[in-house]
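Continuing the series of single-chain predictions for the mutant panel. This is the parent chain; the variants come on the following pages.
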Amino acid sequence: MPGATNRPVGRRAVVLAATAGAVGAALARPAHAAGFGWTDDGANYVVDTGAQLVFKVAKSTGDLTSLVYRGTEYQGYGGMNSHIESGLGASTVSIKQSGTTILISVTHGTLRHYYAARGGENNVYLWTNKADTSVTASRYIVRVRKGAFLNDEPDSYTYAPTTIEASDVFRKSDGQTRSKHYSKLRVMDYDHIGWSAGGVGLWMVRSNHEKAAGGPFYRSLLRHQSADGGGLYEILHYGQNQTEAQRFGLQGPYVIAFTDGGAPSSALYAGTLTTPWADSLGIAGYVPASGRGKVSGVGISGRNTAYPYTVGLANPSAQYWGPARSSDGWFSLSGVLPGTYTLTVYKGELAVYTTSVSVSAGGTTTLNTIAIPSSNDPSNAAAIWRIGDWNGTPGGFKNADLMTYAHPSDVRAASWTGNVVVGNGETAAFPCYLWKDVNSGILVYFKLTGAQAAAAHTLRIGVTTAYANGRPQVTVNDAWTSAIPAPPTQPDTRSLTNGSYRGNNHTFTYSVPASAWRTDTSQYNVLRIDVVSGSGASGFLSAGTAVDAIDLLA
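Parent structure:
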């Protein structure tokens, strides 16, 4: 069931495979298919895929109770199984075989969950249909035994004994921080997540996320490893720093894949996977390829070619995305459920164009060249000076890259304080995040010509998210102070401390009168930026915001 065609970027070797053709990455192992079948051991349905993978599903709960690959058990830690959320509890579980496919169906209230095996494959295919909020189902977690795979990546806390925030952010003895939230990756950046060691790879291959929320740039926890064992996740709805309401319906397939150490086959990726063999299995909410449509655009004009562009589709029921070709902006989104969608064009992560499109089953909606109006990109406005650029991210600001995989208190972070002089490496010197308790009151020094100082100007501050309603109030030369702006709509959970700057992009504008400027052109004007809010706790959990760009318009 194909989704948007996503192109993975920036993979770490230990997390994501270097090449789709790595040794042992074959989708199927027909040589072992002779053992394909299932049995009932009284407590579990036992499925042998005929490819050295045998797994068990509890008949009473639908938990995955065993994952044996090449004779070694990988499932389980702390006495817990692999399952939806923390386990569904009493459920109705059934099994059927249709040729070379075995399907296990789990019913718990309004929720339907499915496991499928194909003869000769080292894969378990999973679907989850969450119909409403009556059943909690925000994730599937594969629990992996202690010692099976070891790593000290940002999302591991095996060697981090000191808790520094909540119960899920830790500090190692060397001052580096670890948390299951610190994946580095946006949804569009990965196809699979997992580990490889000793000639065995265990991976979670994500679904197309059409029923998830947050869009292509969303970050959520993907895996973790502690002293007890590891976990691989498929997130169905993640409440941290969420910008959208959750969507309901069938999500999947997502795939638990074993290999001989290399990447899972690219044929399993969300942008390429097809499952015609599942069309007649009776999976609730399943829509075959024939019931889906496609949106294609011949190009996008008005782009800034220094940035990647992404095209997204979204409505309350589904979401899709894909890259626009760098040469001309051509794009194609396939596997789209019928309906009317908002199509958004993003420069980096900044929305610069929207329109409405309709998709029909079996049809292709073709769009003529999309022309982005110059005024839609704030970078096109003439500026006296600009810190950063308008792309919907804090990229280029101090500590920006580190903050996707570390806590702000991490020893690797540069000082969050320090003032900035325009014309002297101001972007790299300006912190990506501002907090009321940490670095509020940062000063920006700049000079104006006589003509510039004689006129009023608009100051703009773009932000990508905020915590506890943190927003900027500005003062110029101690001669003029802006009103406190109203807080824009932003997520109401942690963000800046758990690896995500992604919220709702917002631009604050301030009309600075000519009387605020210094008339002596040899003197620096001084802009002070304070974070204001009546909410928040203290330190890095005080009210804060993430910066996209700051400029003074001509």
